[in-house]
Amino acid sequence: MESNQHQEGSMIYFNNAATSWPKPLCVAEAVSEAIRSLPGSANRGGLKEKDDMWACRSHLAELLQVTNPSRISLGANATYALNEAIQGFPFQGGDVVLTTLAEHNAVLRPLYRLEKRGIIRTVFVPVEPDGRVNPSTWWDYLERYHPRMVVFIHASNVTGAVNDAQTLARLAKERNATVVLDAAQSLGIVPVLPEIWGIDYVAFTGHKYLLGPQGTGGLYVAQRETVDPVYVGGTGIYSDQEEMPQEMPLRLEAGTPNEHSFAGLAAALQWRKENPVDGVSLQMRTEETANRLRRAGAKVVEVRGERTPVIAFSIPGWDPADVGDVFFDSYDIICRTGLHCAPKILSNIGAPAEGTVRVSLSRFTTEEEIDVLVTAVGELLA
């Protein structure tokens, strides 16, 4: 089939770690209804009885098991949230920030910016061949560098390996470090429990495993923490103040919010609660798919222990970008190839310099779709 003949319904979608698809039907219906309805309040007048932003906050507080929904600010995505947590933190010149070689550019680039300005010094912790942080190595770096802040990804967007966030956070708090968790790849698929684990900031997005629309996400800020807003502007109330209000979530929510998309996220969160994901079955399916790809001849990054439904691999003799093109043009498969916005992890996991092929499953992935994927790999190596 020629690429210009592809029909949406015929495609096999293996790119859920980028944006989940399909969404529950109620998500599109909620977005449509919100666009057609009078705008909600958002502190600016409107229909106060229909507050999709607060509905999202309430659902998220329940999911995160945090006591105060107001500690959750809502914004465009995890990248915005990470910038708020990192660039808004009250660093003093020369503070050390400890992070890992598995991080996404949403963490790396804010750190680079602060380092270039002489505000911080960044230290990178190596990761295991599956992309996971070894707690012993983590402690060694904490002891050696005494960081003011640690920032780490909960689940690798390249390999799917899930870090032991509770242990890493506990060790960091023993060294009096502020803890920032990137939960873009984990929230909605594995537990994220900041109050129980002692995590200060959690950045998340709505369009991956929460099954919501793009343009949604947010930042949880612990009760004991504050942050200087990166974005300032109107809040609809306290308009006589020269600076952003101190109270959360207003402090981090300048400007008119993306209310119709948050209506979709609220619907997705409600749907998830009524239809909980079977994480054990999804992990078993992911591991079996990885084994089948390995038997077909792919060089698969091996991940042991808890993981998200992400598989990274390469095909001997093939450039990853070419594999993606052939998958799409000849097999109707949508996947992701290249560096995955996490360029530092490649050397740790033994990946080629040009990156990997990444397939990411969802609860909606069928065995027939996995069969096509495995067949495609086998035929590329035939």
In brief:
Helix content is 35%, strand content 14%.
Commentary on this structure:
The chain is built from twelve helices and 13 strands. The longest helix is centred in the last third of the chain and has 17 residues. The N terminus is likely disordered. By secondary structure, it is α/β, with parallel strands linked by helices. It folds into two domains: 124 residues, Aspartate Aminotransferase, domain 1, CATH 3.90.1150; 250 residues, Aspartate Aminotransferase, domain 2.
Overall residue-averaged pLDDT value: 94
Query: In one word, what is the shape?
Result: globular
Q: Provide the CATH architecture of the largest domain.
A: 3-Layer(aba) Sandwich
Give a count of the beta strands, DSSP E runs of length 2 or more. 13
Which percent band covers the strand fraction? 5-15%
Structural class call reads: alpha/beta
Order of helices and strands: EHHEHEHEHEHEHEEHHEEHEEHEH
Strand order of the largest sheet: 2-8-7-6-5-3-4
Kindly give the count of domains: 2
Q: Roughly what percent helix?
A: 25-40%
Q: What is the CATH superfamily classification of the largest domain?
A: Type I PLP-dependent aspartate aminotransferase-like (Major domain)
How is the main sheet built? 7 strands, mixed
Taking Cα atoms only, what radius of gyration do you get, to the nearest Å? 21 Å
Give me the CATH fold name of the largest domain: Aspartate Aminotransferase, domain 2
